[in-house]
Structures are given as C-alpha cells and as structure tokens.
Amino acid sequence: MQRLLAAATLVAASLSQTVYADDAPMLGFGEGQWGAGLALLKPNGGIINETAIQNGAVRVTDSQSWSAKLVLERHYYAVNSAKDGCATDGWLGACLGLFVGVGLGDQQILDMVGGGLMIGAGRVAGTTDPTARQHNFGIGVGRMFRVKSLGDGISAGAPLPAGETEIRHKFRDTNVLFLLYSYSLPQ
Fold first, then answer.
1. Sequence-ordered list of residues with C-beta below 8 angstroms from that of 5, at least 6 positions apart, any chain
2. What is the pTM of this model?
3. 26-44 pLDDT, tens per residue?
4. d(C-alpha 11, C-alpha 94), whole Å
5. 3-class DSSP state for residue 155?
6. What is residue 123's three-state secondary structure?
C-alpha cells in the first residue's frame, strides 16, 4: 500500500510540474463525472465464509481472497487549459486523474470506501467538459467494513481454546487493494 501511495505522489508531483511548448502549465482538474462499475477487491487477510471443526481442529472450509463489488464513483481528470483538454491528450486520447468511490453491499448499504488513480478513454459526446471520458479504469486502496474472520484466540488448523465448543467469529474492518472499471453516467 505504501508503494502505491508513493507512486501516486510521484505522478501527482510530475503532473503539477508539467510545462508545455507554450509555457502554459496544467491548471488542475476538470468538472468531474459520476461513474458506476465493478471492482475486484483484495482484502488484507481474505474473507472467511464458513468454518468447521474437523479432527479436533478449526478448519476454514470456504474463503475468498478476491471479491467483486458494485461501485459508485466520482472521478476528476487532469486538465491543461492551454490545450483545452486532458493534460495527457497526446497519449491515445486518454485522461489521467483521481477517483473516490463507495462499494454497495448486501448486508449493509455501503461496505467499502476507497480512492486511487484512474485512466479514462472514449470522449463523451455532447458535454462541455473536455476531459469527460466514457470508460474509466482505476487502481486504488480503501477500507472494507464488517469482514468476517475468526474470533480472538482462534486459529485455523489449531484446536479450540480450552472450554470452548463452538467456533467464534468476529467482524472487522480491513484494508483493500482494488481494480475498478466504471462507465460514466449521463450528466
């Protein structure tokens, strides 16, 4: 996670110092757009779905190291006012920017928040924002809420603590890395 944040800082610093042929620096970010999409999440420690006691030891019988989630996000692409468009327009017409998003859950309405770097492609017709893009691809970090895990003092592969007869679980918040695809919603 620290490497991703360091990379984001370097990209942001290099974009803020970009100077073009006419010496007009990039001014900031565009109007921003809403997007809806799908994220693939990698929670720290995984997600436990089911456990059982087999041969006297606690066993995790069903778990996930990746999970998919519907996401609503807001993204902002870097703008160069001198070019009246994306600061990175010369590169296949793609825009580079930032996003924040929330994951929609089945047990609770919002069960993930995060943000990161985004690349957008495919201009949106009929908008005044020169940075508007239809297809958005992102990589980010965030926080996932109420992830099921083994209770305190209980370990997979070990016997239950003395005096206990059932496997206890707890719900915890955990860090996640995720990949995101979103489609820009009509303005």
1. 141
2. 0.72
3. 446 667 889 999 999 999 9
4. 15
5. coil
6. strand
Number of alpha helices (DSSP H) and beta strands (DSSP E) in the chain: 1, 10
Scan for tokens 């924040």, then name that residue. Answer: 100
- d(C-alpha 60, C-alpha 64), whole Å: 10
Task: Find the distance separating the first CA and the last CA of the chain, reported in whole Å.
Answer: 33
Q: Which residues contact 185 (CB under 8 A, 6 or more apart)?
A: 33, 34, 35, 36
Q: What is the DSSP string of 53-107?
A: EETTEEEEEEEES-EEEEEEEEEEEEEETTTTEETTTTTTT-EEEEEEEEEE-SS
CB within 8 Å of 54: residues ≥ 6 apart: none
Q: Which two tokens stand for residue 182?
A: 């979103």
**pLDDT one-digit tens code per residue, 100-159:** 999 998 888 999 999 999 988 876 656 666 666 788 999 999 999 999 999 999 999 999
Token pair for 158 = 């070990």
